[in-house]
Amino acid sequence: MRLPEIQAAVAALRNIRGLPWTAAHKKKPDEDILDWLQSMFGFQKDNVSNQREHLILLLANVHIRQFPRPEQQPKLDDRALTIVMKKLFRNYKKWCKYLGRKSSLWLPTIQQEVQQRKLLYMGLYLLIWGEAANLRFMPECLCYIYHHMAFELYGMLAGSVSPMTGEHVKPAYGGDDEAFLQKVVTPIYETIAKEAKRSRGGKSKHSVWRNYDDLNEYFWSIRCFRLGWPMRADADFFCRTAEELRLERSEIKSNSGDRWMGKVNFVEIRSFWHIFRSFDRMWSFYILCLQAMIVIAWNGSGELSAIFQGDVFLKVLSVFITAAILKLAQAVLDVALSWKARHSMSLYVKLRYVLKVGAAAVWVVVMPVTYAYSWKNASGFAQTIKNWFGGHSHNSPSLFIVAILIYLSPNMLSALLFLFPFIRRYLERSDFKIMMLMMWWSQPRLYIGRGMHESALSLFKYTMFWIVLLISKLAFSYYAEIKPLVGPTKDIMRIHISVYSWHEFFPHAKNNIGVVIALWSPVILVYFMDTQIWYAIVSTLVGGLNGAFRRLGEIRTLGMLRSRFESIPGAFNDCLVPHDKSEDTKKKGFRATFSRKFDQLPSSKDKEAARFAQMWNKIISSFREEDLISDREMELLLVPYWSDPDLDLIRWPPFLLASKIPIALDMAKDSNGKDRELKKRLAVDSYMTCAVRECYASFKNLINYLVVGEREGLVINDIFSKIDVHIENETLITELNLSALPDLYGQFVRLIEYLVHTVTLQ
């Protein structure tokens, strides 16, 4: 309560001026807006306390971002209210717009009352949400409840008069204690409980019970307002028992609109046809490609270039007849698999299914007829069709091409929307009637999932993956499976066999069709089932390349960890820490897209080093909490960034610097007075350089701390200043005798052990 932003939020909530209290209300000190909502709508006391704290923290959090300095926070900022309100009511406003209803968020014209009204709306929503319990799994149900209660709130504040009673508007469920819980939440929760019993632990059929999603879908339609407010107990939303349904059927006059609602948009039908329907585009594509490849291999030379020959190309176009038949099968399957949901479907959805079947049936007739008229000298079934529709008519190939273009126009539009997902996203989210009509044919309009599409880059990568996979699969199928069988099949069909050594399943069939079926059946099965093999191959290659670019699994040993550890802080700050807008640190270009090299963190960037150290130490501490490492191992792995802030360098974990100092001492002892040579040898191992610098800096700080005399301090500072000058001028070894440096190191270690022992005793 001492923070200025908290005080500003509390002061705004305590503005209860002009609120109409009930006559029986007893005034209490420090009453606020949430207390008034509790007395009007009957919320629980503890819920009010929780949501008061919730709302205060929400407002204070946004308010402090608007005014970072405490002295600039005289009162709650209106922008903070607007931001919080926009976040809270984002789904509610979308729901109202989707159903074509005006929201109940009416603001007064007097500017002084706007802030109070916004707080009332937000407080009411949070109180409903806090007491909704399992109804939170049904967000649109909460929108329905809030829509009516917010309208009642507006009516009470505006002094509206009810046309039914002639009195001032009051909440439908009153303001008794726990009225909202008992009269609003409990009936809906009991409906959920009854539906759960209907499921019998998931053993019942999908069509005889409803889960949270099914109940929530009821509020995706304008029909949800039939539920009324206060909610009618006999509405179709509420579940009735079998006995109640039996009594209802025995009545002479029954209201058909009050029956059990059931599923709204989808009812599961368990069938093996789902194998085709769930992947209908894949199966249809494979069937059409198989037909085209057989036609190309059967006619002409068998090469793919034969498709450019006139007769072969016209025969390949027969795949559109097959496509029309498959489309009719898909439409019929859609109707069959949605049959159990026919009672709860809207008229527009039923009309869509009927038109889908009708349009597919029309194309099944149009495609063969126009194809038959595209041949100059038709034979077989094509000639039969021409005889049905006038066999003496001239051929018209252009008519079949026009039919194909019209047939493919919806697919062209779908491809265009696929290439430009932002257009499809806009069309699906739009609530204009024209846009809704355009999208109505492709899919039923649902509230959830509209406009949820991947980015253009993700779609491009996904498309390229499947293009490579399908080209590889189809090329293998054509050259290794289909084309080699065409020649033997023609030979088998030309051979006449009169006596069989085994039973002939097709004794009256021509061209040895039984042998042909036996020959082609395994090939066809392999053709349809080898996609998973190609998927495994291509996904392995793509995953391997992606992992190689991202350098996954590169660090496999402790030595490799030591060699790569210097780049970890830079990678952490580049990938996980957001950059300031003023800093243009992000690499651009094609090479940067595939490059995963990160700059080493310079010692001057203490802030970035501290960020990484905190993250790294948190990970190591979690390892210790899970008992994956011991205390000793944790001490070796932690980054000691908090030990001595006076050290102007990055301090690495001790396990990286182990044994570096003794090796450096031996190198200095045997350097033969050559500073540059020693410096080059130290620079080979960056961790050794860091260890030497850290050891020297720590030694200097420790000696300066232990020496308390003024005279002694001057002497020590003079010694260190001369050493620093020699280090800078690269004359340390030539000017000083370092043969006793190992002895000094030993004395320093003994000093550290003594200090540690002293601290332990204290």
TrEMBL record:
Transmembrane helix listed as a keyword: yes
Any one GO cellular component localisation term in the record: plasma membrane
Matches recorded under Pfam families: CALS1, FKS1_dom1
UniProt protein name: 1,3-beta-glucan synthase component FKS1-like domain-containing protein
Lineage: Eukaryota, Viridiplantae, Streptophyta, Embryophyta, Tracheophyta
GO MF assignments: glucosyltransferase activity
Alphabetized InterPro entries for the sequence: CALS1_helical (IPR058851), FKS1-like_dom1 (IPR026899)
Transmembrane region(s): 283-300, 312-333, 353-373, 399-420, 460-480
Keywords, ordered alphabetically: Membrane, Transmembrane, Transmembrane helix
